Structure formats: C-alpha cells, structure tokens
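Inverse folding, one chain.
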C-alpha cells in the first residue's frame, strides 16, 4: 500500500510538472496533453515493467515540453531494479538516442555540450540506479546470512537439547531405575519371606508401587531419548486416579482421609493431570515433613471451579531430604492449566496446599 501511494504521488508530480511547463510555453509539441496523461500511466507501472516503461518514456518525450526529465528518472528506475544487465543497457541506448536527437552535435563545442548533458541526464542516474541495485543486493545477502545463522543457531540449540535429554536419560536409567529395581526386588523377596501377614502386605504394596514407578520411568526415558518427543506418549493420570493414589499410600502405611465427590467433576484433560500431580506431590511432601500424621485430601467444586486441597499438621521432624523443586513444578502445572495455587500454614497448625482450576467441559 505504501509503495502504491508513493508511485501515485510521483506520477502526479511528474505529470503536473509537464502540464505546468506546457501551459507556460508558447510553442508546444502536438498532442502533448495526451502524452502527459500517458506519462502518468507509465510512472504508475514503472516498478512492474522497468524496461518497457523506460522505452515508453523515451517515445513519449517527443511529445512533451520537458523532454529529458521523465527518461532520466525512468533510466534510474531500470538500473535500480535490473542492475548491470541487458535491460539497463537497452535503456541507456534509448536515452542516448533521445539525447542526441534533442541535442544534435554539429561541431566540437556542440559535442562537448552534449557530453555534459549526457553526464547529467544519463551517467548520473545510471550510476545512482546501479548503486541502489548493489545496495539492495547487499542488504538481501545480509538478510539471507542472518536467516541462515539463525537457522544454524536453532539447529545447534536443538542438538544441544537432544544431547542433554539423552544424558539425563542415561543418568536416570543408570541411577534411578537401578535403585528402584533393587527396591522392587527386595520388596518382592520380603513379601515371600515376611514374618507376618501385615509385613507381607506392606512389602507387596512397595513392590507394586516400585514396578509402577519403573513403568512410568521407562515411558519418560523413551520420551527423553526421542529427538521430537510426543507429549501424548507420557503417562497421563486423570482426576479419577486420585482415589487410587490415596488407596495405594494408605496401603503403604500412610494415614489419609480423602473427601472425594461422587461422581467426580468433569474437567479438561490438562486440568485432570495437573490436579492429580498436585495431590501426588502434596502427599509426598506431607510424608516427608510430617511422617505419621493424618493427611486430608479434598476435591470439590466452588463457584464453578475445581478446588484441590491437601492439608497436614505442621511437622516437627526434618523428615526426608527434599530438593525444593516440587512446589516450583506444582506452580508451573497449575499456571499452564489456567489455575491458581496457594500454599503455606493456615494459622491453625496445618500446612495447606490449595489449587483451583476452571472446571468446564472435559472428562473426569
């Protein structure tokens, strides 16, 4: 739009100059008004047809008062858009023929005068046009190099990320998977040789939980090793899995009081996954900071939003070592699901994690 406006303004200016000059002349070429109108069209089309409009401008200059003004700019236009190629050479020849026709040299002094006019009306616009062409070509080359450099940086970053994912996968396989496998094997052996039934049941719960952890870990390791991981290949817990999670931890010896509505609210898949992970991480943190304490888990709808709340008494013991990344991960999950998270003491001797999510649509 901007270039069209510039072309229109330039065509109006050139045509206006030709008309004003023609009106103030006593003797004017025949049909100069039609030639001036045609020159308006020529300048409108100069970007699309540089050589054709230059030759048309040379021809129309025979019928307009200010003969050399339009061909000068049209020659510059050809040089700026076609560069040092044959269309520019043809335009130069056309302008030179027009110049000699209007200023025919009859003696040496006339040739010198024609040479000066040639410099002004041919050489200067030609050089200016070629300079603009080279400048545009240089800018295009620089843009191409910048784009290429950006693509190379992106490729290098992708390769670095892939290498880091593979390194993490190896570390998790060599360390975490090995340790969990040992736990599963030892728990299985204990369940067979347990001194009493209660110990055997607890050992079997530990073995099943370790086996489930190994299955999820294998899925995560596969995603980490893939160059283009598919998020759908990750384990996808849902809101319905919260009850099973509470049952498993209760069977493992935790004291959990779960307040879960029947039926469960219908929520989007992303909300269900986030809610499950919030409960899972909160129960893990509660077991670390307040071992043996009763943990309360509540799900429900409040003002059209799903509320997930996990509360436990403030622990007096140090518990197990923690990394500090659990709350960060929970906050990220809640934010991505469009929810809000609050955590901390509630003033009644409890530590409460409370998350709320939009509850419209989806599956439980």
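Residues assigned per position:
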């Amino acid at each position: 739009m901007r270039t069209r406006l510039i072309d229109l303004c330039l065509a109006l200016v050139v045509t206006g100059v030709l008309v004003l000059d023609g009106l103030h002349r006593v003797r004017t070429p025949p049909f100069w008004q039609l030639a001036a109108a045609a020159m308006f069209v020529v300048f409108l089309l100069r970007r699309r047809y540089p050589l054709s409009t230059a030759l048309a401008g040379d021809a129309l200059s025979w019928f307009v008062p200010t003969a050399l003004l339009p061909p000068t700019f049209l020659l510059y236009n050809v040089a700026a858009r076609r560069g040092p190629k044959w269309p520019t050479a043809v335009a130069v020849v056309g302008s030179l023929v027009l110049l000699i026709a209007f200023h025919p040299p009859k003696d040496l002094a006339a040739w010198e005068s024609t040479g000066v006019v040639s410099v002004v009306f041919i050489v200067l616009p030609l050089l200016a046009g070629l300079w603009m062409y080279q400048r545009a070509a240089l800018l295009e080359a620089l843009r191409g190099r910048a784009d290429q450099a950006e693509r190379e940086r992106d490729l290098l970053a992708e390769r670095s990320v892939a290498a880091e994912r593979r390194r993490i996968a190896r570390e998790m396989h060599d360390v975490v998977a090995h340790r969990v496998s040992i736990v599963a094997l030892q728990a299985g052996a204990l369940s067979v040789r347990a001194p009493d039934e209660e110990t055997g049941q607890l050992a079997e719960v530990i073995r099943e939980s370790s086996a489930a952890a190994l299955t999820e870990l294998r899925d995560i390791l596969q995603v980490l090793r893939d160059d283009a991981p598919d998020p759908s290949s990750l384990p996808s817990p849902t809101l319905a899995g919260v009850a099973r999670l509470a049952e498993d931890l209760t069977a493992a010896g935790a004291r959990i009081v779960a307040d879960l509505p029947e039926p469960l609210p219908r929520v989007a898949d992303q909300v269900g996954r986030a809610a499950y992970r919030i409960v899972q991480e909160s129960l893990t943190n509660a077991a670390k900071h307040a071992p043996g304490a009763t943990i309360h888990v509540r799900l429900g709808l409040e003002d059209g939003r799903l509320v997930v709340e996990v509360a436990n008494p403030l622990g007096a013991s140090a518990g197990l070592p923690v990394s500090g990344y659990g709350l960060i991960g929970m906050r990220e999950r809640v934010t991505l699901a469009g929810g809000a998270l609050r955590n901390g003491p509630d003033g009644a001797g409890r530590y409460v994690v409370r998350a709320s999510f939009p509850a419209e649509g989806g599956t439980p």
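Strands lie at 255-259, 294-302, 305-313, 340-345, 350-358. Residues 2-102 form one domain.
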